[in-house]
C-alpha cells in the first residue's frame, strides 16, 4: 500500500513537495494508530536502554 500511495502521490504532486507531504499525512497517522492499537493489545512496551 505505501509504495502504491507514494507512486500515485509523486505523480500527482510532482512539482509540489509540500502538497505531497500533506497528502501522505493521513496514511502516516493511520499507520501510527494501528501500531498503537497493536502495542496496547499485545502488551508491548519500550524497554529502557539505560
Give short descriptive properties of this protein:
2 helices; 50 residues
Write a compact overview of the structure shown:
The protein has 50 residues and is mainly α. Helix content is 74%, strand content 0%. The protein contains two helices and no strands.
Q: How would you state the average pLDDT, rounded?
A: 90
Count every helix, treating DSSP H or I runs of 4 or more residues as helices: 2
Largest sheet: none
Count of discrete domains:
1
What best-fitting shape do the alpha-carbon axes yield? elongated
Radius of gyration equals 15 Å
Helix content: over 70%
Terminal Cα span: 36 Å
Helix-strand string: HH
Q: Which blocks of ≥5 consecutive residues have pLDDT under 50? A: none
Helix/strand/pairing category:
mainly alpha
Number of strands: 0
**Beta fraction of the residues?**
under 5%
Write the layout of secondary structure elements.
Blueprint: H1 2-12, H2 17-42
Helix pairs in contact: 1-2
Describe the structure.
The protein has 50 residues and is an all-alpha fold. The protein has one domain. Helix content is 74%, strand content 0%. It has two helices and no strands. The protein has helices at residues 2-12, 17-42. Helix 1 (2-12) runs antiparallel to helix 2 (17-42). The radius of gyration is 15 Å and the shape is elongated. The model has no long low-confidence stretch (mean pLDDT 90).
Amino acid at each position: 500500500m505505501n509504495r502504491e500511495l507514494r507512486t500515485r502521490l509523486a505523480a500527482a504532486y510532482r512539482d509540489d513537495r509540500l502538497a505531497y507531504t500533506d497528502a501522505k499525512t493521513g496514511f502516516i497517522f493511520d499507520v501510527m494508530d494501528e501500531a498503537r492499537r497493536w502495542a496496547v493489545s499485545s502488551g508491548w512496551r519500550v524497554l529502557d536502554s539505560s
